């Protein structure tokens, strides 16, 4: 399923960097806002999206580092070691990863108890190699990625059974070459990114059906140039990231049309407020703004820092911390 | 921030939350759906509405009521004070914003302390799904709730119906289909009913690929449990398929002939009949599906879902034919030829059925065949 892209008056083929910086910096300024309360449950990820996006645009110093680090410190749970999305919420692997990513960006890992984070991740691994997202027991390949990423960035990957974790991730592969959230679940570009990312961190990419998976990923590109996340779904900017990052890791970025995708992504900018939306004409949000900018960085857009496809963080920061596996094209 | 909420507003929010609580307490088992009714401006009557079995809240009041309930819950959570009376605030907050894991977790604490009962929690989570049919938190909560019940006491068919309703309301509902697969792994006896259900669903929602994927899951699982229809193992589709293009004398019309055609290396006396029946049942279904897709293409034109589904069921067919031809799967203990899997090219030239199956792929999908089959 695709969409008609109508180029309206005022649409642009340029990246509106100034506008996007403004958008990210002003995001969440009104803390009494209803929307702000509604999204509190993922605040930590929101901050990660914002800081990473600004850093890629070379403007990280526009946010207050000190208050962000104070915020993260308040979110680490004293008993489990895990980190929550916001003070008063429960810890979860998803937000623990976001917090670690922000701290790496600020070179501030020492500000929290990293060993406790390691223990938390370790405690969530199951006998079959999979990971719970938190103590309540949901299993998902997203959590395998979070676990590996957290431990790689904090240099503690030895804490988990990587071999079993890999077997679990591979057990989620489908006949079409893709991956889902658990064994038998439908292939989904977001979850493929998590599984490919996991294998890139653990240096197990050779165990993938590389060509078949890359083929499936390329079929996500629609006539509009945009990418969808599954067959028959609409194109969406966030899938530009997930599909593109996976293809980059697989060394198959050149299998899709970069020009058409670039055009599609640029059409998703909001020329008035700044920010990117899922599709042209929709409301922008911080999530799609990072993934729009991140995808353009992968496509080699000028004036953007190079982004690491596995961690979705600036390459210069990842280089200092961990060596991921990327396949040659 | 609590201080910012005016006293007047507090009284109002408490009133709305209590009213919602009253409806849920008195008639939760009757209330089937919840929704936010778009009313942009304040009205001079209660924003809670109950019409027959449908509960609604007017949109204009949501920002006040949600912020109030949210703050109250989080401040309790911070002090680790979670009295059962917090439930009415949780009900309200979750119905408005089902994505907040921490709110669901508080319900879990209360269930563990037997301050909430399972039946009502099942009802509540299904009410949430009536508002947001793709709520992953609600499905996850239900899976967690089921861990408190013994398998024999559970009517899994009810859960399948819930998934079906949620999938009907939201195209490509990932969490609903995942949940359904979880149910079927708990209750494999329901797998065979999925054959008719998923065909109906596909014919009604031709562009919902999740259902095709689910049907593929069902087919593979049926093979795993060696299922076949004891009362009617009708193999008409296979006979028709293998007989295309054969001369009258060469036509296959009985089981011996079919086995000789499909597996020329295997003698019928050595075959495990249950495995054979389930294999033939599955092949028959796959060929049935290939015909169904052709029919759908004639009616609706080309869809990505058709192409993708054809690929996966043909590769499923190839996988099981390979398994039966080149391992001792069908003849355990008798077959001594080789268990080493052959190269794809070798298999292709040796098996006419595989050849015929590959011909079923669209001609414009030729590159895919060349590379991956
Ligand atoms: Zn999106």
Written description of the protein model:
The complex is a heterodimer of chains A (329) and B (373). Chain A is mainly alpha-helical and 329 residues long. Chain A has a domain at 209-328: Glycosyltransferase. Chain A has 14 helices and two strands; from the N terminus they run αααααααααααααββα. Chain A has helices at residues 17-26, 34-38, 43-56, 65-75, 93-105, 114-123, 141-153, 162-170, 189-201, 210-218, 237-249, 258-267, 286-298, 315-321, and strands at residues 307-308, 313-314. A two-stranded antiparallel ribbon of chain A has the order 1-2. The longest helix of chain A has 14 residues, at 43-56. The radius of gyration of chain A is 19 Å and the shape is globular. The mean pLDDT of chain A is 95. Chain B is mainly alpha-helical and 373 residues long. Chain B has three domains: 2-149, no CATH class; 153-225, no CATH class; 228-372, no CATH class. In chain B, strand 2 (48-51) and strand 3 (54-58) form a beta hairpin. The radius of gyration of chain B is 28 Å and the shape is elongated. The N and C termini of chain B lie far apart (62 Å). The model of chain B is unreliable at 334-349 (pLDDT under 50). Chains A and B meet through helix 2 and helix 10 of A and helix 2, helix 4, helix 6, helix 8 and helix 10 of B. The site of zinc ion (ZN) has 4 residues of chain A, from loops.
């Amino acid at each position: 399923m695709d969409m008609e892209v109508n180029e309206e008056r005022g649409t642009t083929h340029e990246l509106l960097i100034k506008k996007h910086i403004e958008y990210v910096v002003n995001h969440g300024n009104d803390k009494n806002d209803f929307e702000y309360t509604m999204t509190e449950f993922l605040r930590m990820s929101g901050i990660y999206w914002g800081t990473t996006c600004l850093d890629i645009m070379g403007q990280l110093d526009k946010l207050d580092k000190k208050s962000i680090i104070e915020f993260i410190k308040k979110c680490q749970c004293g008993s489990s070691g895990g980190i929550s999305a916001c003070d008063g919420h429960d810890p979860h692997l998803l937000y623990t990863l976001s917090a670690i990513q922000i701290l790496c960006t600020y070179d501030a890992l020492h500000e929290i108890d990293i060993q406790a984070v390691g223990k938390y991740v370790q405690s969530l691994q199951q006998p079959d190699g999979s990971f719970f997202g938190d103590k309540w027991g949901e299993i998902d390949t997203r959590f395998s990625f979070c676990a590996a990423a957290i431990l790689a960035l904090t240099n503690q990957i030895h804490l988990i059974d990587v071999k079993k974790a890999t077997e679990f991730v591979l057990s989620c592969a489908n006949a079409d070459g893709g991956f889902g959230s658990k064994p038998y679940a439908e292939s989904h570009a977001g979850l493929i990114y998590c599984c490919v990312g996991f294998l890139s961190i653990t240096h197990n990419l050779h165990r993938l059906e590389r060509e078949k998976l890359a083929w499936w990923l390329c079929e996500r590109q629609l006539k509009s140039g945009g990418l969808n996340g599954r067959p028959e779904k609409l194109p969406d900017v966030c899938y530009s990231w997930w599909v593109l990052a996976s293809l980059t890791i697989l060394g198959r970025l050149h299998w899709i049309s970069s020009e058409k995708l670039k055009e599609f992504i640029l059409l998703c900018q909001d020329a008035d407020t700044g920010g990117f939306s899922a599709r042209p004409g929709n409301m922008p949000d911080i999530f799609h703004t990072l993934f729009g900018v991140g995808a353009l960085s992968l496509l080699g857009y000028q004036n953007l820092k190079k982004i690491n496809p596995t961690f979705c963080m600036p390459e210069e920061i990842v280089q200092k911390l961990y060596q991921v596996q990327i396949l040659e094209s | 921030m609590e201080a910012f909420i005016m006293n007047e507003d507090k009284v109002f929010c408490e009133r709305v939350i209590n009213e919602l609580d009253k409806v849920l307490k008195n008639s939760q088992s009757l209330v089937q759906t919840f929704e936010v009714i778009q009313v942009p401006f304040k009205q001079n009557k209660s924003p809670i509405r109950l019409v027959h079995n449908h509960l609604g809240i007017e949109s204009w009041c949501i920002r006040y009521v949600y912020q109030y309930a949210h703050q109250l819950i989080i401040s309790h959570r911070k002090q680790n004070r979670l009295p059962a009376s917090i439930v009415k605030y949780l009900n309200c907050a979750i119905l408005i914003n089902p994505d907040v894991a921490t709110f669901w977790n508080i319900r879990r604490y209360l269930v563990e302390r037997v301050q909430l009962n399972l039946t009502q929690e099942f009802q509540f989570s299904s009410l949430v799904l009536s508002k947001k049919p793709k709520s992953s938190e609600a499905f996850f909560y239900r899976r967690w709730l089921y861990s408190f019940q013994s398998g024999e006491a559970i009517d899994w068919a009810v859960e399948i119906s819930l998934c079906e309703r949620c999938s009907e309301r939201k195209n490509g509902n990932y969490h609903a289909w995942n949940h359904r697969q979880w149910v079927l792994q708990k209750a494999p006896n329901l797998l065979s009913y999925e054959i008719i259900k998923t065909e109906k669903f596909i014919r009604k929602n031709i562009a919902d690929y999740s259902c095709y994927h689910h049907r593929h899951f069902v087919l593979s699982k049926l093979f795993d449990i060696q299922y076949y229809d004891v009362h009617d193992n009708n193999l008409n589709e296979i006979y028709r398929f293998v007989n295309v293009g054969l001369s009258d004398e060469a036509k296959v019309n009985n089981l011996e002939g079919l086995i000789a055609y499909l597996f020329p290396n295997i003698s019928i006396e050595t075959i495990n009949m249950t495995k054979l029946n389930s294999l033939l049942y599955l092949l028959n279904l796959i060929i049935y599906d290939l015909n169904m897709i052709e029919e759908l293409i004639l009616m609706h034109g080309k869809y990505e879902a058709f192409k993708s589904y054809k690929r996966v069921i043909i590769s499923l067919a190839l996988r099981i034919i390979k398994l039966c031809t080149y391992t001792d799967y069908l003849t355990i203990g008798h077959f001594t030829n080789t268990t080493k899997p052959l190269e794809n090219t070798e298999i292709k030239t040796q098996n006419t059925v595989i050849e015929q199956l590959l011909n079923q792929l669209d001609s414009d999908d030729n590159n895919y065949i060349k590379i991956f089959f």
